Amino acid sequence: MNRELEITEAFVSLTDTVADDVDPLTLLRRLVDHCVSLTAMDAAGVMLANARGRLQSVAVTEDRVELTEVFQIQVSEGPCIDAYRTGHPIQADDLADAGGRWPAFTPLARAAGFEAAHSFPLQLRGQNIGALNLLAHSPTPLSPGDARLLQALAHTATTSVLTWSREPLRPYDIVTRTQAALSTKAVLDIALGMLAATAEISPAEAARHLHSYAAGHRQRTIDIAEDLVRRRMTPQSVLTPES
Question: Model confidence over 25-35: pLDDT tens digits?
Answer without folding.
Answer: 888 999 999 99
